[in-house]
Amino acid sequence: MKNIDTAFRHVRGFTMLVVGGSIIISCFALYKSFSLVSQMQDKVYILANGKALEAYASDRKDNIPVEARDHVMTFHKLFFTLDPDDKVIKTNVTKALYLADESAKRIYDDLKEGGYYSGIISGNISQTIQVDSVTIDINKYPYHFRCYATQNIIRTTSMAHRSLITEGNLRNVSRSDNNPHGFLVERWNTIENRDLSTENRK
Prior knowledge:
34% strand, four-stranded antiparallel beta sheet
Protein backbone atom coordinates (compact mmCIF):
# COMPACT_ATOMS: atom_id res chain seq x y z
CA MET A 1 0.00 0.00 0.00
CA LYS A 2 2.88 2.34 0.83
CA ASN A 3 4.49 1.63 -2.52
CA ILE A 4 1.16 2.28 -4.29
CA ASP A 5 0.66 5.53 -2.36
CA THR A 6 4.23 6.66 -3.05
CA ALA A 7 3.91 5.76 -6.73
CA PHE A 8 0.62 7.64 -6.98
CA ARG A 9 2.19 10.77 -5.43
CA HIS A 10 5.11 10.54 -7.86
CA VAL A 11 2.78 10.10 -10.83
CA ARG A 12 0.58 12.98 -9.64
CA GLY A 13 3.60 15.24 -9.13
CA PHE A 14 5.01 14.34 -12.53
CA THR A 15 1.61 14.91 -14.14
CA MET A 16 1.28 18.35 -12.49
CA LEU A 17 4.81 19.22 -13.63
CA VAL A 18 4.02 18.20 -17.22
CA VAL A 19 0.71 20.13 -17.18
CA GLY A 20 2.39 23.23 -15.70
CA GLY A 21 5.20 23.04 -18.26
CA SER A 22 2.69 22.65 -21.08
CA ILE A 23 0.76 25.72 -19.89
CA ILE A 24 3.95 27.80 -19.67
CA ILE A 25 5.10 26.69 -23.13
CA SER A 26 1.63 27.36 -24.60
CA CYS A 27 1.51 30.86 -23.07
CA PHE A 28 5.00 31.63 -24.35
CA ALA A 29 4.09 30.35 -27.84
CA LEU A 30 0.93 32.52 -27.87
CA TYR A 31 2.89 35.57 -26.73
CA LYS A 32 5.52 35.11 -29.42
CA SER A 33 2.84 34.51 -32.06
CA PHE A 34 0.98 37.73 -31.20
CA SER A 35 4.28 39.61 -31.06
CA LEU A 36 5.28 38.30 -34.49
CA VAL A 37 1.88 39.12 -35.99
CA SER A 38 2.10 42.64 -34.54
CA GLN A 39 5.55 43.12 -36.06
CA MET A 40 4.38 41.83 -39.42
CA GLN A 41 1.44 44.25 -39.40
CA ASP A 42 3.88 47.12 -38.99
CA LYS A 43 5.62 46.10 -42.22
CA VAL A 44 4.23 47.15 -45.56
CA TYR A 45 5.55 46.10 -48.94
CA ILE A 46 5.32 48.67 -51.73
CA LEU A 47 5.71 47.76 -55.38
CA ALA A 48 7.56 50.51 -57.26
CA ASN A 49 8.95 50.12 -60.76
CA GLY A 50 8.74 46.35 -60.51
CA LYS A 51 10.65 46.22 -57.21
CA ALA A 52 9.21 45.31 -53.81
CA LEU A 53 10.23 47.84 -51.17
CA GLU A 54 9.76 47.22 -47.46
CA ALA A 55 8.29 50.02 -45.35
CA TYR A 56 7.48 50.24 -41.66
CA ALA A 57 4.32 51.66 -40.15
CA SER A 58 4.57 54.10 -37.27
CA ASP A 59 2.31 56.12 -35.01
CA ARG A 60 1.02 59.34 -36.51
CA LYS A 61 2.40 61.38 -33.63
CA ASP A 62 5.90 60.48 -34.82
CA ASN A 63 5.20 62.06 -38.22
CA ILE A 64 3.08 65.07 -37.27
CA PRO A 65 5.80 67.72 -37.83
CA VAL A 66 6.78 66.29 -41.23
CA GLU A 67 3.21 65.78 -42.46
CA ALA A 68 2.10 69.16 -41.14
CA ARG A 69 4.92 71.00 -42.92
CA ASP A 70 4.22 69.16 -46.16
CA HIS A 71 0.50 69.95 -45.85
CA VAL A 72 1.23 73.67 -45.44
CA MET A 73 3.71 73.64 -48.33
CA THR A 74 1.28 71.80 -50.61
CA PHE A 75 -1.54 74.21 -49.78
CA HIS A 76 0.58 77.29 -50.53
CA LYS A 77 1.97 75.85 -53.75
CA LEU A 78 -1.51 75.03 -55.02
CA PHE A 79 -3.01 78.36 -53.96
CA PHE A 80 -0.21 80.57 -55.31
CA THR A 81 0.93 78.67 -58.43
CA LEU A 82 -1.01 80.42 -61.18
CA ASP A 83 -0.82 80.60 -64.96
CA PRO A 84 -2.76 82.77 -67.43
CA ASP A 85 -5.37 80.06 -67.89
CA ASP A 86 -8.72 80.12 -66.14
CA LYS A 87 -8.93 76.33 -66.05
CA VAL A 88 -5.49 75.96 -64.45
CA ILE A 89 -6.34 78.60 -61.84
CA LYS A 90 -9.63 76.93 -60.92
CA THR A 91 -8.03 73.47 -60.77
CA ASN A 92 -5.19 74.56 -58.47
CA VAL A 93 -7.36 76.70 -56.21
CA THR A 94 -10.01 73.98 -55.92
CA LYS A 95 -7.36 71.49 -54.80
CA ALA A 96 -6.02 74.06 -52.31
CA LEU A 97 -9.46 74.75 -50.85
CA TYR A 98 -9.86 71.07 -49.95
CA LEU A 99 -6.93 71.61 -47.59
CA ALA A 100 -8.29 74.69 -45.79
CA ASP A 101 -11.40 76.14 -44.17
CA GLU A 102 -13.52 79.14 -45.16
CA SER A 103 -10.70 81.59 -44.37
CA ALA A 104 -8.92 80.52 -47.56
CA LYS A 105 -12.19 80.57 -49.51
CA ARG A 106 -12.82 84.12 -48.30
CA ILE A 107 -9.38 85.26 -49.49
CA TYR A 108 -9.95 83.57 -52.85
CA ASP A 109 -13.34 85.29 -53.24
CA ASP A 110 -11.82 88.68 -52.35
CA LEU A 111 -9.03 88.23 -54.92
CA LYS A 112 -11.52 87.12 -57.55
CA GLU A 113 -13.85 90.06 -56.93
CA GLY A 114 -10.89 92.44 -57.01
CA GLY A 115 -9.98 91.21 -60.50
CA TYR A 116 -6.70 89.59 -59.45
CA TYR A 117 -7.19 86.40 -61.45
CA SER A 118 -8.62 88.15 -64.49
CA GLY A 119 -5.58 90.45 -64.42
CA ILE A 120 -3.28 87.41 -64.47
CA ILE A 121 -5.12 86.03 -67.50
CA SER A 122 -5.33 89.28 -69.44
CA GLY A 123 -1.72 90.21 -68.67
CA ASN A 124 -0.31 86.76 -69.49
CA ILE A 125 1.26 86.62 -66.04
CA SER A 126 2.57 83.48 -64.38
CA GLN A 127 3.06 83.18 -60.66
CA THR A 128 5.12 80.62 -58.77
CA ILE A 129 6.03 80.26 -55.14
CA GLN A 130 9.05 78.89 -53.34
CA VAL A 131 8.42 77.91 -49.73
CA ASP A 132 11.56 78.74 -47.78
CA SER A 133 10.52 77.31 -44.41
CA VAL A 134 7.52 76.30 -42.32
CA THR A 135 7.49 76.38 -38.52
CA ILE A 136 4.99 74.19 -36.64
CA ASP A 137 4.17 74.37 -32.93
CA ILE A 138 2.99 70.86 -32.02
CA ASN A 139 2.96 71.52 -28.27
CA LYS A 140 -0.53 73.01 -28.45
CA TYR A 141 -3.54 71.82 -30.45
CA PRO A 142 -4.66 73.03 -32.94
CA TYR A 143 -1.11 73.28 -34.25
CA HIS A 144 -0.03 76.81 -35.12
CA PHE A 145 2.12 77.31 -38.20
CA ARG A 146 3.94 80.11 -39.93
CA CYS A 147 5.04 79.88 -43.55
CA TYR A 148 7.89 81.88 -45.08
CA ALA A 149 7.93 81.94 -48.87
CA THR A 150 9.01 83.89 -51.94
CA GLN A 151 6.58 84.68 -54.76
CA ASN A 152 7.89 84.99 -58.30
CA ILE A 153 5.60 86.98 -60.59
CA ILE A 154 6.62 86.56 -64.22
CA ARG A 155 5.42 89.18 -66.69
CA THR A 156 6.27 89.59 -70.35
CA THR A 157 9.05 92.10 -69.72
CA SER A 158 9.95 91.62 -66.05
CA MET A 159 10.04 89.27 -63.08
CA ALA A 160 9.13 90.45 -59.59
CA HIS A 161 10.06 88.74 -56.35
CA ARG A 162 7.88 89.23 -53.29
CA SER A 163 8.24 88.14 -49.69
CA LEU A 164 5.23 86.23 -48.37
CA ILE A 165 4.64 85.31 -44.72
CA THR A 166 1.40 83.65 -43.65
CA GLU A 167 0.16 81.96 -40.51
CA GLY A 168 -2.73 79.82 -39.34
CA ASN A 169 -3.70 76.69 -37.45
CA LEU A 170 -3.89 73.03 -38.42
CA ARG A 171 -6.77 70.83 -37.27
CA ASN A 172 -6.95 67.05 -37.63
CA VAL A 173 -9.55 65.73 -40.09
CA SER A 174 -10.14 62.42 -41.86
CA ARG A 175 -7.70 61.50 -44.60
CA SER A 176 -9.02 61.33 -48.14
CA ASP A 177 -7.83 61.45 -51.74
CA ASN A 178 -8.31 65.22 -51.68
CA ASN A 179 -6.63 65.59 -48.28
CA PRO A 180 -4.06 62.80 -47.84
CA HIS A 181 -2.36 64.35 -44.78
CA GLY A 182 -5.56 64.63 -42.75
CA PHE A 183 -5.07 68.28 -41.75
CA LEU A 184 -7.19 71.37 -42.34
CA VAL A 185 -5.74 74.89 -42.48
CA GLU A 186 -7.77 77.21 -40.25
CA ARG A 187 -7.72 80.98 -39.63
CA TRP A 188 -5.27 81.51 -42.45
CA ASN A 189 -4.09 85.06 -42.96
CA THR A 190 -1.21 86.95 -44.56
CA ILE A 191 1.23 88.73 -42.26
CA GLU A 192 3.52 90.15 -44.93
CA ASN A 193 3.51 90.42 -48.72
CA ARG A 194 6.03 92.97 -49.92
CA ASP A 195 8.24 93.55 -52.96
CA LEU A 196 11.83 92.35 -52.73
CA SER A 197 13.20 93.03 -56.20
CA THR A 198 12.31 93.36 -59.86
CA GLU A 199 14.45 92.35 -62.80
CA ASN A 200 13.99 92.88 -66.51
CA ARG A 201 13.59 89.90 -68.78
CA LYS A 202 15.52 89.77 -72.03
